[in-house]
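Proteins fold reproducibly. Consider a sample protein:
=====
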Amino acid sequence: MHRLLSLLLLLLIALPARAEPGVGETRLQHFLDGLDGLQAHFIQHLIDHERKVIEESEGLLEVSRPGRFRLEYTSPYHQLYIADGKKVWMYEEELAQATVRDQDATLANTPAELLSNPRPLREQFRIEEKGEHEGLVWIELRPLGSEGEGGFDYIRLAMEGATLRAMEMVDGLGQTTRLYFKEMQRNPPLIPQRFQFTPPDGVDVIGRD
């Protein structure tokens, strides 16, 4: 579920200047307050420990709070993740295979839960301001409890005003997943059926009781 737990694009080339303490957290909280859903196209880069881009992909993210989201990769392959409030589905079309897992156990303290679950930030993460770089204010979130418990060491988010522009996840192996959002719509009309998944005929399902 590595790609599901990731998001961002905006490589920090230089050390960012310090922003006013609390600015990033305030902007992120303002973005999350009153958020019922969102829709955004994204570009994702997967970067190895030597800072080389080893994969680039694109897709569409849709979130319906509380607890539902759809992450669909459209290029260079087709892959689909759906959280329906109880289960998380991963569908790999080329392999004709679907995997299903318990949502609470899978998404605890992850970027996906951050966007889809309206819990207070400080109940989930330790927060650190990382300053301003190229007009974006960065904030770092580390999950409370064991380091890397959610499959990553920390998340960084970039705010432009009160709009979320990018997310970054770094795992314990030094691999970074970055996702940059474009054409983001806040609280758009969303179709409930987009957050449901029924395996097509002939698809192998792993993890279903």
Observations:
- Residues 56 and 165 are 17 Å apart (CA to CA).
- Residues 3-11+18-196 form a domain with the outer membrane lipoprotein receptor (LolB), chain A fold (CATH 2.50.20.10).
